[in-house]
Amino acid sequence: MMMLFNPITGCLTPRARSLATGLGTGGILLLSACGLQKDIDVELPAYPAQLVVESYLENNRFPRVSVTESVPYLSAPDAGLPQGVKVVLTLPSGRRDTLLYAPAINPNTNKGYTHTGRTRISARPGDTFKLEVYDTQGRRVTGSATMPATVPLDSVEYKYNDLTGSQRMAYVLASFRDPAATVDFYRFQVHKRSVSTDPEVEYTVEDRLSNGQPLSLGTSYQFSPKDTVFVTLYHLDRPYFQFLQSVQDARNSNGNPFAQPSAIKSTVEGGIGIFTILSYQRQRLILK
After folding, report:
1. pTM of this prediction?
2. 141 and 158 belong to one structural domain
3. What are residue 10's DSSP bridge partners?
4. By the 8 A CB rule, do 224 and 169 touch?
5. What percent of the chain has pLDDT over 70?
């Protein structure tokens, strides 16, 4: 009896290789059965955990900051919070306010935070706030943000298509005038029923091709009669705009073997994250 496979190497014997060569396609398949799999252990470099900071200040709201830690890409999720972290917010007046460590969920946004202020802040366009986050391990994150000017909404309207019944849907359109003296960035959101849920529509734009002109941002035909929608127009500074774009790029490349890796463009130094002051206009619309 002729042996086809070497019991030691697991590959075809010379005699079997010669036989397989004369079998055409079948022989090729037989030859390909040798060495189909090879396990490789890749040693990933060890990166020290960094502080991750997220804070969106709003006028007449309590200042709140979320501080977590970065973890390796392939590690299991860790819900633990870094300990011994201090957060100091410097107001436009120069007064330093040490925030209280009190982890909770903001009921207005459904977002978690770790530190909160005791008094509401006053933020006006042009005001600059500074943030300092440090811990007992010597890690320190700093950031500075200036509130952008308010861009008023001129109109918010909706229009139905020509269909009937369950196919009768409406689009929503918001119009405003872009300031001519500056380079401007915007974030457009439309929520249904509540702003504490994920938006139905969300995207960012810049005025590179429409500086100083009337602008309209809208949706597709996707809202039904009696829907209550909240239309929000954020006026962003450049760092916040670039942060949002980098987050979207990272989401798009995550898990895609053909996409280039995308790093988050943080607005803070010494760590990862975002520190900004929100400037927005919002209107509620009930579709009739």
Report:
1. 0.82
2. no
3. none
4. yes
5. 87
